Amino acid sequence: MRAIWKGAISFGLVHIPITLYPATRREEVRFHFLRGSDLSPINNKRVAEADGKEVAWDEIVKGYQYEKGKYVVLKDDDFSRVDIEATQTVDIQEFVELDEINPMFFSKPYYMEPGKGGDKSYALLRDVLRDTGKVGIAKVVIKTRQHLAAVKAQHDSLVLELMHFADEIISDDELHVPGKITLGKKEQEMAKQLLHSMTGKWNPQAYKDEYREALLEVIEEKIAAGGKDVPGKKAAGSVKATNVIDLVSVLQKSIQQHGQTRAKRPAAPSREKSRKKAA
Predict the structure, then answer these.
(1) What is the pLDDT of residues 170-194, one digit of tens each?
(2) For residue 93, what is the domain's CATH number?
(3) Most exposed of 4, 54, 137, 140 (fewest Cβ within 10 Å)?
(4) How many CA atoms lie less than 13 Å away from 254 in the CB half-sphere?
(5) Residue 116 to residue 127: CA distance in whole angstroms
């Protein structure tokens, strides 16, 4: 893995040198825009709306639109006035119960590896967080931007998970969702039975990006065919949405269906086997 940041965790007078590594990846299937007649790549040009003329980089400035069509230009000096000092420190402000945090606040996780001389302090913080069920709420500057973040214990590692600030979370107040609705006892019992029939142990390996895999398969087929069109496979029929009236009947059919398919799902690997494989 390639390190993206080096610094330290700080809480109280404790200072732990750490290195930050990405904990996730997203492998997108990338495409280029081409001219259909000769497959010549198409380049993006920066043009001004006023006259359609191309604009050189040294003529471009940053502007904030405060009213429609009205802008104020910000220069380097303006940005320097609000620069937050990049202290290279994950500065823990407080510790809170993990269960108190709405999962919507969490954004992107990173692994933290202890630096030279930091093993004991690293293990101490990790074990205390794990034993207490708490996380450290911190602020950190990465690539000139300040982030809210949580320091979590994850197995034998510490994880830094970037978080959204409160004003970045969109309220659900404007959604038209049902309030209190009287539900039949039979419907509730059947729904609980369906939930029970679909309950299993979390196994992330059981879930794949099927669209990406199918798209890559189509690409490989077209490459093998010299770029020519390949006959498509018949798509599986989808279930049409209907206005459900007889919930009990639908729930009963769902329970029967999932009772038949559940046995086909792969079993979750034991944690010990997973860790040996990762090692």
Answers:
(1) 988 888 888 888 888 888 888 888 8
(2) 2.40.290.10
(3) 54
(4) 17
(5) 19
Helix crossing, 247-261 with 185-197: angle to 10°? Answer: 10
What is the rounded distance in angstroms from the CA atom of residue 47 to the CA atom of residue 45? 6
Cα 260 to Cα 266: distance, rounded to the nearest angstrom? 14
125 backbone dihedrals φ, ψ, rounded to 5°? -65, -45
> Coil, strand, or helix at residue 164?
coil
End-to-end CA distance of the chain: 14
Rounded to whole angstroms, the Cα distance separating 245 from 90 reads 54
pTM of the model: 0.70
The residue assigned the tokens 């309030």 is 179
119: amino acid identity, one letter = D
Domain extent, residue 123, equals 5-26+83-166
- For residue 143, being part of any structural domain is answered with yes
Neighbouring-strand partners of residue 275: none
**Confidence at residue 262, expressed as pLDDT on a 0 to 100 scale:** 58
